[in-house]
Amino acid sequence: MSTVTWPDQTVSDALAAVQATSPLTYGLTNYISAPLAANAILAVGGSPAFGALPGGIAHLATIASGVFLNLASLITDTYDDLRTAARAAHDAGTPWVLDPVVVGAGIAQHDAFAAELLELRPTAIRGNASEVLALAGGASTSKGVDATASTEEVVDLAAALARRTGAVVAVSGEVDRITDGTEVVAVPGGHPWLPRVTATGCALGGLTATFLGAGTAPLQAVVAAHAVLAVAAERAAPHARGTGTFAAALLDELSLLRPASQ
Amino acid sequence: MSTVTWPDQTVSDALAAVQATSPLTYGLTNYISAPLAANAILAVGGSPAFGALPGGIAHLATIASGVFLNLASLITDTYDDLRTAARAAHDAGTPWVLDPVVVGAGIAQHDAFAAELLELRPTAIRGNASEVLALAGGASTSKGVDATASTEEVVDLAAALARRTGAVVAVSGEVDRITDGTEVVAVPGGHPWLPRVTATGCALGGLTATFLGAGTAPLQAVVAAHAVLAVAAERAAPHARGTGTFAAALLDELSLLRPASQ
Amino acid sequence: MSTVTWPDQTVSDALAAVQATSPLTYGLTNYISAPLAANAILAVGGSPAFGALPGGIAHLATIASGVFLNLASLITDTYDDLRTAARAAHDAGTPWVLDPVVVGAGIAQHDAFAAELLELRPTAIRGNASEVLALAGGASTSKGVDATASTEEVVDLAAALARRTGAVVAVSGEVDRITDGTEVVAVPGGHPWLPRVTATGCALGGLTATFLGAGTAPLQAVVAAHAVLAVAAERAAPHARGTGTFAAALLDELSLLRPASQ
């Protein structure tokens, strides 16, 4: 298992690609996380457009450079909205990210829907340990959006999920673990305040789609998105007094990152 | 009438209970207030999950430690979504909070729906003076989400509402008034910037459900949530230049509060 | 073409009118932008109420002092919700603002709906160059919410749109251009971080409705809203480290503005 952090060359190059192309990232997400996720994408140089616009879902998922589907978007969107987006991304070859929020929390139809979306072959799957564990077929103790299983427990299951679906699978935790089924990359860093700010997971999903949308290869793109958020969190903490100013400082640091080669 | 403020022992104990148990708070709220409300709950140590997930409303209201229903959630949710959540909370014995947003603003079907929800016996009702006045059967001059009646005018009506419904009733204002129909507790503090930041009322509803969810008795839990927000607002003001940094500083102060006994 | 900036007398007077009357601004907007837009309206002294409350849309659009309809609200609202609001505002004589988000991005039914709303005679239309270009009948290269046409290219088309619809038309850009079809006013200022914070365009739509709602004549009100946001952005930048603290500082500056005559 290798360890990758900012400013490793692959991460820096992936950010350079985002800032050079300002890729359009189309997302179906939810009203708790959308503002932070949109601002995170803008901060690194991407261009976000969110929401199930009537008549526009397939179009936006087709013309976008990357798509992310957060299953908590179902609080306002329909199953068909998400199916339409996933299918359009799949058919157009747009890389897309599945964020399996609330999977494994005991809602059978929700879990079944997540399993169905796997057939449309997400480019990446990003969740906390409980969600990935549940999606991979293990038991879960999640109570909604919380991570209660440890990262380590799920790396093997994540790799199996990656091999089965063809997706790069990322498990967020104190140390993030990212795998394509063969290789496993660890991304340390971050900060204890990160899980105490709502929507940082969704922001990571949006960043992942943005890095994929800039043309970087899947494993490197997913790793880069995680490494960028981790370093931004580390750098934000000294500028913050608590979780409120930490959220603003996190966006600051994302907006201040520049590729090493510039 | 007694007066309670941070760090009175009951308030400190109620916060200690939240931080010891990290209760799951399930909320149906709206896209204006959700981010601040979720971050306020996370800041004090709770665990928020929001939104009308298909097939998940009754489940989440049942497994949650506390539930809050903000009537402005009707801008994206249905009457049945809220009925389902209130009924599940009622049947499971989950304490739940009704935030009667926009009641009394002249929308008859909205006011009727609020009255209907009272039959499912909220543990607490929290609103501004106009909303509580309208819910209690008085006239109202509210123009939506504004407080235009004074707190003092409605204390008697609030106590009558508490006796009729069995709920603890909280009226937000310059000095908050909280009553179980017998006792009336005043919670002073706060700051003039508080009503100039959107969603602070909804955040208070979410905090109230979180403190109830940690097992503190209803009157003490509702008072504690109000006292905690009031002291956080007072402490935030010196760190802020205007209403924008005040919102971030408010979350900071919520995240920095520690029970006196620790 | 004249140039207007804060603290020109007309802008200062328009802000004084807002702060004297605290007008109710009713908006249909979306879950990405609502928090910032609501906070911007509150910061200048207005009173926001957002969302398609069942049975309340026509009522709120009628009793409000100003209305703004952001077409991205269609991610949760229906065409009929927006029609109802626009028609009620039109019939009640409530000034209303159309923000043609995503028009010209290649979604035919969306563009057709925007054209239909023009028949209900918005008081003001506010968008970026691509959106106004598309609404005015020109070609567009928009990829969603981005501005890719220059402001200058569209001033002539904006003036023609203003003459055709009777609306004041505002085109946001490095220098904003605002026209009633005869006169063209330039509003310079702002900051490069402004388009890198999500929802600043929507906030401008909300501020425009708020300034109209305070009774200032349309051209002056639209110009004032743009000048106020521009000066707030300029003043915010020195207090910010990046785009996160810039968003908070922007609200600070809006909340600190006082009319020159006070």
Automatic annotation (TrEMBL), chains A, B, C:
What EC numbers are recorded for this enzyme? 2.7.1.50
- Keywords for this entry? Kinase, Transferase
Question: What EC class is this?
Answer: transferase
Protein's recorded name? Hydroxyethylthiazole kinase
Tell me the organism.
Nocardioides zeae
What lineage does the source organism belong to?
Answer: Bacteria, Bacillati, Actinomycetota, Actinomycetes, Propionibacteriales
